């Protein structure tokens, strides 16, 4: 599903080694927490997965695609196999909930008929069927994040990457969001969550990969959050 083979990323303008000889294997259907303090290398790892960055050396294989060999023209097509959820939601303010989710399908060439069938389905999965015609500013923060999850699901991705998805939410809403991601994972979608939320990590008992100084310092099958990370 996802393999990093001896991946190193050095930012040449600063000579900073963000990731140092990382080897990592995540199987299809896993739920993985990626933890570590700011600057540990989590963001770089995610950017390598999404092909926003290129490794200095090593190989990245995702869904049998060698991401390190993709051309600039191929990268947008590759990203359609991924679903992204961000801390700041990144919704289009002038579009309704339905239109925000549908837009994710529109950009990959879906027909109106396909959107009419798919959008209600994914909104139902995150409990927002009754809010389909609302604008983002008419929703709570938790509801906006659920729209973002629905948008990430729109194109039926094999992998969802959630980057600090609970960072702007209160504890109860955070648990709700993680419950939706866990349910999506149960349906077979691989989920990677980068987070500083130790309560969430400790309560869910999923695989935990800890990064520090550009290295994987811990990889526990049913781990928790260490205050030292």
Tag the structure with descriptive keywords:
229 residues; alpha/beta; six-stranded mixed sheet; 10 strands; 27% strand
Question: What is the compact description of this entry?
Answer:
The chain is α/β, with parallel strands linked by helices. The protein is 32% helix and 27% strand.
Task: Report the radius of gyration as a whole number of Å.
Answer: 18 Å
β-strand number: 10
Put simply, the count of helices is 7
Distance separating the two termini: 26 Å
For the report, how would you describe the main beta sheet? 6 strands, mixed
- Reading the helices and strands in chain order gives EEEHEEHEHHHEHEHEE
Characterize the overall form.
globular
Share of helix among residues?
25-40%
Q: How much strand? A: 25-35%
Low-confidence stretches: none
Structural class: alpha/beta
Strands ordered across the widest β-sheet: 6-7-8-3-9-10
Mean pLDDT: 94
Oligomeric state: single chain
Structure overview:
This protein is of the alpha/beta class and about 230 residues long. It contains seven helices and ten strands. The chain has a six-stranded mixed sheet with strand order 6-7-8-3-9-10, with helices on both faces. Strands 2-1-4-5 form a four-stranded antiparallel sheet, with helices on one face. α3 (about 95-105) crosses α4 (about 110-125), α3 runs parallel beside α5 and α4 (about 110-125) packs across α5. The mean pLDDT is about 95.
